[in-house]
Design a protein that fits this description.
Strand content: 5-15%
Shape: elongated
Distance between the termini: 36 Å
CATH architecture of the largest domain: 3-Layer(aba) Sandwich
CATH topology of the largest domain: Rossmann fold
Helix content: 40-55%
């Protein structure tokens, strides 16, 4: 493809999509889904676009093109599932042994230094407690008897001859008992010290063995990958477009490869998902904010174009570039595309037995689905508060939560697991497949998104595309997708969300809203086509004025 509008013929020879992180992790998160679709569906559209679209990996030798089949999520068979179960069980056993060994020294120290004192103290407390319930005359008699016994035991010359002989024998027996007690404690101490030393040795051995296995596995994986990549390396240059769509925020090596490619004339672009680490640093880890800020500065300084997943994210990036004084950025260089709202067309995974069991438990009851990582930004707290109100009113409704554990939500995850309705009307799947997602979409009456901030809000589009109502927080990204098709609520207002759900279950819909059936949104093929056309159009503009031809990895 070419553009001669400015009198200069610019040819786009090929478009390469970086998929390094997705290939390494086989992740199925939202970003991974976008990357896979761009690479797999984009490759199928090569003829339509008039240029090859190829997924590539970053290696120690540069970039290597790979077949799209390498990006497909692994489907575990019996052997794979068994191996994974053994791995998880072994890891759990190892951590348990490590935990036990870590506590043995403290336990042993307590036994050696305090156990006899504690026993004596406990015995005194028991005796005092028993004595306190006895009549005063009996307590006095016992005290006199104890004093008499103590005098005879500690004073060999006191008392009559038979008394002295009797207590002499008692002293001999007590001395022998003390000697044996000392010997027993000494043996126990020696055995305990030996066991503790052995435990520490076993721990060190296990650590070495695990480290060796990991190193061997990593080495074998690298060797196998190097063997599979023979003859697949490509040298990007004039006419090539490199699209950085993957989660490559903390990869200095990648940016070094990008620098080499740009020095040979490659046009480089990035997919901008969101700027939440900059806009709302309170929702992410401090380290991620630093890493992402450095990454965004590199994009602003050294990329030729960007494609954002929403107009809101695009505007945020342009504001960032202007405030950071990265020149040459405007609407022609910062473009947008819409994520697909249908099921990922290349995935045909079946619903897991656990996912199917949840669907069976729901039965005919209304259920609402929450999709996304379990993190504070997603605002599960308000959703749970709203459903607590519904359940306290006697409403028989189910809440389905699908998403991996995220940042700083231990209290909310504990709240879910300890909830009286957990497993009855409250369900949470931490590691769900695409088949589980589709099954839960089908079983749900609607979808809830209560996020404080989003780059796009894919579940909103997915819900409306499936003719399901969406109940979403009033933020720009959600307005961009669903304005006119659903009611919005303040993300801090659980009562408003509960009221909207009651109206929906009663079949009452705001007449001012447009019918959900009239919602039109691109599927993933149209989404990928839209993105790649924007990339090609931006690449035809050539290198961005003000962009640095070399990437300084130390730049902040």
């Amino acid at each position: 493809m070419n553009d001669a509008a400015d009198g200069t013929r610019r040819v786009v020879r090929a478009l390469y999509v970086d998929c390094t992180h997705v290939h390494q992790t086989r992740n199925t998160s939202g970003i991974a889904r976008v990357v896979r679709n761009l690479a797999i569906l984009g490759s199928d559209m090569s003829g339509e676009l008039g240029l090859p679209v190829r997924p590539i990996l970053q290696t120690s030798r540069g970039f290597a093109a790979i077949p799209t089949s390498w990006l497909m999520p692994r489907t575990r068979g019996f052997v794979g599932s068994l191996a994974r179960s053994i791995k998880l069980a072994s890891r759990a056993a190892f951590l348990s042994v490590e935990d036990l060994i870590a506590r043995v020294p403290a336990l042993w120290l307590a036994c050696r230094t305090g156990v006899r004192t504690r026993i004596a103290s406990a015995a005194r407390r028991i005796l005092r407690g028993a004595a306190s319930v006895l009549p005063s005359k009996i307590r006095l008699l016992l005290k006199q008897s104890a004093n008499w016994f103590g005098d005879r035991l500690t004073k060999p010359a006191s008392g009559s001859l038979p008394t002295r002989m009797f207590f002499g024998l008692v002293r001999i027996l007590l001395a022998v008992a003390a000697l044996f007690t000392h010997l027993i404690w000494t043996v126990i101490a020696l055995i305990g010290a030996a066991l503790l030393g052995a435990a520490r040795g076993i721990s060190r051995g296990l650590r070495v063995a695990v480290g060796f296995v990991r190193s061997a596995r990593t080495g074998a994986s690298r060797a196998l990958l190097a063997f599979r990549l023979r003859g697949r390396h490509v040298q990007l240059g004039q006419g090539d477009v490199l699209l950085l769509a993957d989660s490559n925020w903390d990869s200095d090596t990648l940016w070094a490869r990008v620098a080499e490619a740009r020095s040979r004339g490659t046009i480089v672009g990035s997919v901008v998902y969101d700027l939440i680490p900059l806009r709302r640093p309170d929702f992410v880890d401090e380290k991620l904010t630093r890493v992402f800020t450095r990454h965004l500065h590199r994009v602003g300084e050294h990329n030729d174009f960007t494609v954002a997943i929403s107009r809101d994210s695009c505007r945020e990036f342009l504001r960032f570039a202007e405030s950071a004084r990265h020149t040459g950025w405007d609407e022609t260089r910062a473009r947008t595309f819409r994520l697909g709202g249908d099921k990922w067309t290349q995935v045909h995974s079946m619903c897991s037995e656990a996912g199917a069991e949840v669907v069976r438990r729901i039965g005919d009851r209304p259920a609402y689905l929450v999709v996304g990582t379990f993190e504070i930004r997603k605002n599960h707290r308000v959703i749970l508060d709203a459903f607590d109100r519904l359940w306290s009113d006697g409403t028989d409704v189910c809440l389905l939560i699908l998403g991996r554990p995220g940042y700083r939500v231990d209290d909310q995850m504990a709240r879910v697991r300890a909830h009286p309705e957990f497993g009855r009307r409250l369900f949470w799947a931490e590691n769900a497949s695409d088949g589980d997602l589709e099954s839960w979409y089908s079983a749900s009456r609607g979808v809830i998104m209560a996020s404080y901030a989003e780059g796009f809000g894919l579940p909103v589009a997915e819900a409306l595309a499936r003719n399901k109502p969406a109940f979403v927080s009033d933020i720009p990204a959600h307005r961009e997708i669903a304005d006119g098709f659903c009611e919005f609520f303040d993300p801090a207002d659980a009562d408003r969300l509960a009221a909207l759900l009651r109206l929906d279950m009663a079949g009452i819909r705001n007449p001012a809203l447009r019918p959900i059936a009239s919602f039109v949104w691109p599927d993933w093929k149209a989404s990928v086509r839209e993105c790649l056309r924007e990339c090609v159009g931006a690449a035809m503009l050539g290198p961005r004025a003000g962009g640095s031809p070399a990437i300084h990895l130390g730049a902040s």
